[in-house]
Task: structure prediction
Amino acid sequence: MDSQVQHTGIYRWVILAFAWGALLLTFVDRLVWGSLSVPVGQALGMSLGSLGIFVTAFYVGYVLSNVAGGVASDWMGPRRALALSLLPLGICTFLFGHIQSVSLGILLQALMGLAAGCDYAACVKLAATWFDRRHRGRAIGLLMTATSLAVVVTNAVVPKLLEIQSWSRIYEQLGVLTVVFGLVCYAVVRDGPLEGQNVPTTRNLRHLLKHRDILLLALAGFGSMWGTWGFTFWANALMIKGYGLSVAAAGSITVLFGVGAIVSKPLIGLLSDWLGGKRKLLVMICFFGFCAALLVFGQLHSIEQFRLIAPLLGIAGFAYSPLLAVMIAETAGPSAAGSATGFTNAFWQLGSVVVPVVVGMVFQSTHSFFFAFLTLAAGPALALLCLIPVREATRS
Result:
């Protein structure tokens, strides 16, 4: 019995490591567009304002597949759902490196989104069912560092790769890596011991659609993702066009944004566990700080100022995500954690679908760096208001 407990204790960290790697690759595959959009746009003859259509295409597919991916995680288990996400994502990423028309690019980005949308719910369910309430905050905090590291990797590594090889070659390499990792995940990963009683997925969905706190958390996530991914996709272009920064300089600032996020996620998860599983107050503090930091960043003018505030913006702009994910899983319970995560994340990502186009329209019409960031700050402000009436779950 003791050896079994010890084995489970060690193996759950192996599971978390593979879930982390899967989430990292998924986010790199989609965030790489932020660093490669300009050369791809030039190759296809696209204007700056129209580049957001590829981001929107990805997120349309991503939103559509999130609910299905969450249900699949509850129905077939997160292990199979994870593999079925990574394999087609890698194939479509590889093919995107060979596009010669805007229409084909839009189609492939939508297919990439459809594949990637199944990944998040599977990874969160793996962490939620391998770790109990006493350790779940730090586990999901560590898991979510993958999304922040993806920001760092794409902005630190991809511009340098672009200096020595073509954008199409970069997409090819990412596609192959994603397929290989998906196959390894299928061979190594196992479903968690805290799965709970299997509830029919239709009953799960009906329950979620009527659950007041789940709906409020969905709205809060919509606003927070509006700010986080709106900044991630537009920060470089806004700094380059608004203040004439070089691609390398803008990328280095966004790297600092990601570094702040990497540090904050495991620490806030650990703090939440130390406080006995309290999540709500910490998330509200993050939302308030994120809104304020976006407004401050929008009024800066120099590289030095951007570099000073970017890490603080990264802390506030990403730290909330692991605790919000934990709140969703704990509110829904183990048997419905995948469906709840998929459903809420689908709604959250609507902010990511809309914000690239909205911010692009605001900047194009006003040519104002501040008004673009004021638009971004509206997201976390909404999230803060939605979280106030939410009741924290106490189940293990």
Q: What stands out?
A: The CA atoms of residues 243 and 301 lie 7 Å apart.
